[in-house]
Amino acid sequence: AGFFRRPAVARFLVSNKPFALIAAATFPVDQIDILVPDGMSPHDYSLRPSDIVKIRQADKILWAGDHMEPYLAKFAAKSVKDSKTEWLDATHLMEDMGLYGSDPHVWLSPELAIEISKRIAEWHPAVKQLDKEQVQKDHQDFANGLTTLVAASKAQLAPLKHNGFFVFHQAYDYWFKAIDIEQLGAFTLSPERKPGARHVQNMRNQLQNKEVTCVLSEPQFSPALINTVVNGLPIQQGELDHLAGESVLTKTAYIEWLSDMTKTLAEWLK
Hints:
Blueprint: E1 12-14, H1 17-24, E2 32-34, H2 49-57, E3 60-63, H3 73-81, E4 86-89, H4 90-96, H5 110-123, H6 129-157, E5 164-169, H7 173-178, E6 185-188, H8 197-208, E7 212-217, H9 224-230, E8 236-239, H10 253-269
Parallel strand pairs: 1-2, 1-3, 3-4, 5-6, 5-7, 7-8
């Protein structure tokens, strides 16, 4: 029996695009559904009727957990009683691995991504032994490629790690830790919480004192807050996307997305 009772139509639902990129390394792309559309933030997402249909039709669901995606919590809790759909909570998995900090954007942890990929490879609907061997090879390629990228990113950014930069919100802790770089500050801890006047003034002071090389906004959020802080100062402004909005699902998309983030950091920190 196992998880995939209907191999031909198995639906794998992921809560956001970065999880889909991880899944695409080993799982058939045409069987992956994404809940939160590109350009929208998972912080304040509201489920539509079509989303509820996807949740009910999914064989397997990967999500970030109730701290990040509270709108899925009641469905996940219900699934404990109703065994039709199996859920994987990425935050719980990360806690089990001893890697969870205060940042709920767990999909930016390379170590977690490799562990999730390993799990997804085991859920793959492949029936023939040859297919199963290919799926395991795809997972190993993903793990090796990601490990190589982390080492290369660390080396590329090492000469620039003392150049200060601000990010829009605290979403990159796991990736920055992996590549041994640290932001000087974040405009806000979470997009739905506006920073206090003192925090804004402190950031502006750091900009005026030339402690900061660049500020990095995000495509999902209005740059009004950043513009208020930067107003009139000659500071470079770039963009990072913690939700991989421009990415297309392929076997190497997750690695390419993180690679692009490294290139963006290197470009602006120079």
